[in-house]
Amino acid sequence: MKIMITKLIFSSLLLLSACASTTTLNSESRIPFSLDTNQHRIQGEIIEIKNADTIILFLEGGVDHGRTNNNVWSPLVDELKQKGSSIAIFDQRCFGLTNEQLEKLQTCTFHQIKQDSLQVYYYLKSLNRYKSMIIIGHAEGSLIASEINFVNSNDQFIKKIILLGAFSQNYQEILHQQMTTTMSRDIFIEVDSNKDGKISQEEIPEHLKRSLPIEKLDTQKKGFFAQGDLLRLLEKQYQQFISFINQDDKNTILIGKPSLWYKELMAHPSLLGQASRFTKPVTIIHGKLDQVSPFNSNALTFSNKLRSLKKTVNLVAVPQVGHYFSEMKENLATKGPIQKEALKILVNAI
């Protein structure tokens, strides 16, 4: 989250082929697979545990996730293996690409990654090696995990859906809160050194002076600005950001994601609006201090909505952690590693 905030501040505005090779370590086998679909080859891996009859499909959020940059979630994967579950992970089609490559690749979109995930699901089912599947989705992955349930609503192969840090609100609502309310709060935590609720010229670090122009923020010429002044500036920047995304035809990379990704996510129906479509048990696991998809407006509201529709739902609130279930430092979210107590709660809930 902290990295994303810094980037935001600086922003100016089915038969498919499976590989047969296997590497074995004790009771664990790593089975790579390769699936050709829609001008793209999906590269993935099954971490197979001997005698496991359930496989977990793990779907991460964002655009740049793969088997080799899984440091945030690897402790969870290790613990789930110890519990006796096989796990499938795969490289998203945007994985490992430079910004220049992403801008030229019109197929690096949320819709395409969602379709890739469906193909992996169908492939794993076609193996006929597992009695059931648990689908885990984090952030944007929560939308994809839910979509697999919607498309396969009567499929008994799906045991349950687990949503981590779920995006239950519409993505544009979440993005608005991130870029205005959450960011203004986090900036004040970082920059307001004497904690008086005001930021003076002297308190602004040199590398942030352009991003926090006091001449624009200090509207009353008092030599400082308050949080309300910053909120007004961030709101204006947010509106410019949305306007640029809607007009951009070059698939420009903004805050690490192509503009097409933002367009599709903002047009995607919210989970709250699709709550009636869930046919499988849902477990919602959410950090109480999540600043990306806040607990009350996402996890709590969503679980209440599912209960009102008589759906099977379990809400697990994880205290003292943020969006990645990591330690909070100076009241700011960090990305990994997962806090030890949070890891125990995650494993028990899954």
What does this structure look like?
The two termini are 25 Å apart. It is globular and about 70 Å long. The protein has a nine-stranded mixed beta sheet, sandwiched between helices. Strands 8-9 form a two-stranded antiparallel sheet. It has a two-stranded antiparallel ribbon with strand order 10-11. The protein has two domains: 16-170 and 270-349, Rossmann fold (3-Layer(aba) Sandwich); 173-262, EF-hand (Recoverin, domain 1), CATH 1.10.238.10. It is built from eleven helices and 15 strands. 37% of the residues lie in helices and 23% in strands. The chain is of the alpha/beta class and 350 residues long. Helix 4 crosses helix 5 and helix 6 (171-191) runs antiparallel to helix 8.
Indicate the CATH architecture of the largest domain.
Answer: 3-Layer(aba) Sandwich
Per the CATH scheme, the topology name of the largest domain is Rossmann fold
CATH class of the largest domain: Alpha Beta
Structural class: alpha/beta
Helical percentage? 25-40%
- State the order of secondary-structure elements, H for helix, E for strand: HEEEEHEHHEHEHEHEHEEHEHEEEH
Separation of termini?
Answer: 25 Å
Strand order of the largest sheet: 1-2-3-5-4-6-7-12-13
How many beta-strand runs? 15
Q: Beta-sheet strand percentage?
A: 15-25%
Largest β sheet strand count, sense and barrel closure: 9 strands, mixed
CATH superfamily of the largest domain: Alpha/Beta hydrolase fold, catalytic domain
Work out the helix count.
Answer: 11
The tally of structural domains comes to: 2
Taking all Cα atoms into account, the compactness measure Rg is 21 Å
Q: Name the overall outline.
A: globular
Show unreliable segments: 1-26
Mean pLDDT comes to 85
